[in-house]
């Protein structure tokens, strides 16, 4: 019996192919949007995660605290509270910290022969490549000896190397370049890193931190300290140890707030994930509205269909169809429309998601959860928006329906 | 003979624009099993309302109607649907077949609502179509059939659930005289096989074929008479009708 009613409902969907398709379109677009938006959201999340992880998975970044000028907070990093000796102390005293690298950076004009560029000059120590996972394309990074001697040596980022040496045909290693008018010997070129997060490390030059302080900034404070934990598991312990070490070194009383900030990978990750989550939620919301509009379209067409088929309903009732039979028939019809729409939307959405994944190199972006949710939501919409027309059909009086022209 | 339907002091009123219209005002009627009854009367006489009542498509405002032992006025909409399905076979003036549906499927429909298995449905629908002489057109749709053929399909549909009452509302109203004769012959055969037939019509030639004629006027039974002519001289009567029609059309 149920099977027969399903057949009747399906036949009516088939009988008006164009109209049925247009009715489904709302649901098709809605389901497609749900699948696609979850794919785009996941693509963004994967992208952010992989970039942050490329920064090194167990790196803690220590930034100076904020200063207030006339009550206006200048933001983190505006105070000058971190020094090279802080970095050394952390490395020596904190058991869960593997190594530290201070970082002082400013920008300067760099000249080689006829080429010149303005780039970031980053003063650091020999631990930098290990912490940041930088490998060398040519030559080598500077050593602790270079740092203690404040040698005038430089390691170029790949992009700087391109800018300064392209077309000259010379091997950069061993050449002398001018940074802010001071000659430096190039001892290495870092391998290209793939743009990572906030700063493009390919467009930078690394020099010993001591050299930078002596020659260029003239101050012994640093902009930040990078610290690597012994493993990703002890990140939080390492963070606590650094905090207590720095509070002692900076002679902060227990009531004073930290004059520095420690940024943990996990913190950044969760902050950025929050942003991508908002993006995903927004897209999901729009998709849900689209599905809702699709549902209203179904209700509209079902109401037209009930009016058109008043006579048919009258005949069926006269020869013995009960209320529930008519109700089921029309409910199944709207359900058939929404479900067919959902399946088509799912196929199109899947194709779209696979395309997005392939183009953005962010892997397989199909989310079974979103797909199941979209289909369930479509079924609900088919039922909810089908109930009113179906009830209208079921409640028709047979004599009125038979008399209807 | 046993009583099939029993109507007592039946009243049906409608509200039209705040005004109360009495379509039926106190009808008493008894029909036995195996009777062939014509309900006649001019339009507005209440015969259509009576047909809706007898067909359980409508319920009385007051009075009682018992069909095959069931008190119709006490039944819910769904119970009425079941009663129509089991007890009554409808034949309408405009056939009321489902479009885009084959003759066979149309005939199967009442059995579908009765919950009969697909195999038995098909079997019985084919038999019913054979009985009305349409075995070779069973896979045609209504728009591929002539008026007379469509009416035969609807008669097959009416018979297929073995109803106790065949209720025909102006069954020949949309047919030419030749086809009318065919359909009326079919009714006569069905009656001869023991079916109870109630036929609502305003055409005297059609009504004359029944064994009992009940005339309505102003919502009441005006006359209720046995009709002997058909029994004694069926051929002569048919001839008289035909000649009367021919004479009328000239």
UniProtKB/TrEMBL annotation, chain A:
One cellular component term (GO) for this entry is: plasma membrane
As one GO molecular function, the record gives: transmembrane transporter activity
> Where is the protein situated, by its record's location annotation?
Cell membrane
Q: Which residues form the MacB-like periplasmic core domain?
A: 20-244
Superkingdom of this protein's organism: Bacteria
Which UniProt keywords are given for this protein, alphabetically ordered? Cell membrane, Membrane, Transmembrane, Transmembrane helix
Occurrences of domain ABC3 transporter permease C-terminal (ranges): 286-398
Stored InterPro entries: ABC3_permease_C, MacB_PCD, Macrolide_Exporter_MacB
Topology in the lipid bilayer is annotated as: Multi-pass membrane protein
Q: Which residues cross the membrane?
A: 21-42, 285-304, 325-349, 369-388
Which family, according to the similarity comment? Answer: Belongs to the ABC-4 integral membrane protein family.
Q: What is this protein called?
A: Putative ABC transport system permease protein
Q: Which organism is it from?
A: Alicyclobacillus tolerans
From TrEMBL, chain B:
- Which Gene3D superfamilies has this protein been placed in? P-loop containing nucleotide triphosphate hydrolases
Hey, what's the signal peptide range on this chain?
none
Which GO molecular-function terms appear in the entry? Answer: ATP binding; ATP hydrolysis activity; transmembrane transporter activity
- Matching SUPFAM superfamilies: P-loop containing nucleoside triphosphate hydrolases
Q: Which PROSITE patterns match?
A: ABC_TRANSPORTER_1, ABC_TRANSPORTER_2
Q: According to the lineage, what is the superkingdom? A: Bacteria
Q: ABC transporter domain spans which residues?
A: 5-243
> What keywords appear on the UniProt entry?
ATP-binding, Nucleotide-binding, Transport
Can you list the GO cellular component terms from the UniProt entry? membrane protein complex; plasma membrane
Q: Which CDD domains match?
A: ABC_MJ0796_LolCDE_FtsE (cd03255)
What PANTHER family does the database record attribute to this sequence?
ABC TRANSPORTER ABCH.1, IMPORT ATP-BINDING PROTEIN
Question: What name appears for this protein in its UniProt entry?
Answer: Putative ABC transport system ATP-binding protein
The species this protein was found in: Alicyclobacillus tolerans
């Amino acid at each position: 019996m149920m099977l027969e009613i399903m057949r009747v409902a399906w036949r009516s969907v088939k009988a008006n192919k164009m109209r049925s398709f247009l009715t489904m379109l709302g649901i098709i677009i809605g389901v497609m949007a749900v699948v696609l938006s979850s794919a785009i959201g996941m693509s963004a999340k994967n992208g952010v995660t992989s970039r942050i992880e490329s920064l090194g998975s167990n790196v803690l970044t220590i930034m100076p605290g904020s200063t207030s000028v006339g009550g206006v907070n200048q933001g983190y990093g505006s105070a000058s509270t971190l020094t090279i000796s802080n970095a050394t102390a952390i490395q020596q005293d904190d058991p869960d910290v593997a190594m530290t690298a201070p970082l002082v950076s400013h920008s300067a004009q760099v000249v080689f022969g006829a080429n010149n560029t303005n780039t970031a000059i980053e003063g650091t120590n020999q631990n930098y490549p290990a912490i940041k996972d930088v490998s060398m394309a040519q030559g080598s990074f500077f050593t602790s000896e270079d740092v203690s001697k404040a040698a005038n040596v430089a390691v170029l980022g790949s992009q700087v190397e391109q800018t300064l040496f392209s077309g000259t045909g010379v091997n950069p290693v061993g050449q002398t370049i001018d940074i802010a008018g001071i000659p430096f010997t190039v001892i290495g070129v870092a391998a290209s890193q793939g743009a990572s997060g906030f700063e493009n490390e390919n467009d930078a030059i690394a020099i010993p931190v001591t050299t930078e302080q002596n020659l260029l900034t003239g101050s012994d404070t640093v902009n930040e300290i990078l610290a690597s934990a012994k493993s990703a598991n002890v990140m939080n312990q390492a963070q606590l140890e650094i905090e207590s070490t720095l509070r002692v070194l900076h002679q902060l009383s227990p009531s004073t707030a930290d004059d520095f900030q420690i940024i943990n990978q996990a913190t950044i990750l969760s902050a950025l994930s929050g942003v991508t989550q908002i993006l995903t939620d927004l897209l999901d919301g729009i998709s849900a509205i689209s599905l809702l509009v699709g549902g209203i379209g179904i209700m509209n067409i079902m109401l037209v269909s009930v009016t058109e088929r008043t006579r048919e309903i009258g005949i069926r009732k006269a020869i013995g169809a009960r209320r529930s039979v008519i109700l089921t028939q029309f409910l199944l019809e709207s359900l058939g429309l929404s479900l067919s729409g959902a399946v088509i939307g799912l196929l199109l959405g899947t194709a779209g998601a696979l395309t997005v994944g392939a183009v953005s190199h962010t892997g397989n972006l199909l989310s079974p959860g979103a797909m199941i949710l979209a289909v369930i939501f479509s079924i609900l919409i088919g039922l909810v928006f089908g109930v009113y027309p179906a009830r209208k059909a079921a409640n028709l009086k047979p004599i009125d329906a038979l008399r209807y022209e | 003979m046993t009583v099939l339907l029993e109507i007592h002091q039946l009243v049906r009123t409608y509200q039209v624009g705040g005004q109360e219209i009495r379509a039926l005002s106190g009808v008493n009627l008894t029909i036995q099993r195996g009777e062939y009854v014509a309900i006649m009367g001019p339009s507005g006489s209440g015969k259509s309302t009576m047909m809706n009542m007898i067909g359980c498509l409508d319920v009385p405002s007051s009075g009682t109607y018992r069909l095959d032992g069931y008190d119709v006025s006490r039944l819910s909409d769904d119970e009425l649907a079941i009663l129509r399905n089991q007890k009554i076979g409808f034949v309408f003036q405009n056939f009321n077949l489902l479009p885009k549906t084959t003759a066979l499927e149309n005939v199967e429909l009442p059995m579908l609502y009765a919950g009969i298995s697909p195999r038995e449905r098909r079997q019985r629908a084919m038999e019913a179509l054979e009985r009305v002489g349409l075995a070779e057109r069973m896979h045609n749709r209504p728009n591929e059939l002539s008026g007379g053929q469509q009416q035969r399909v609807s008669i097959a549909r009416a018979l297929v659930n073995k109803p106790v009452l065949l209720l025909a509302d102006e069954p020949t109203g949309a047919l030419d005289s030749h086809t009318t004769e065919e359909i009326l012959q079919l009714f006569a055969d069905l009656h001869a096989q023991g079916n109870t037939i109630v036929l609502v019509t305003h055409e005297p030639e059609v009504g004359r074929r029944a064994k009992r004629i009940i005339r309505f006027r102003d919502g009441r039974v005006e006359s209720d008479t046995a009709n002997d002519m058909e029994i004694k001289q069926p051929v002569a009567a048919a001839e008289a009708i035909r000649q009367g029609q021919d004479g009328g059309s000239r």
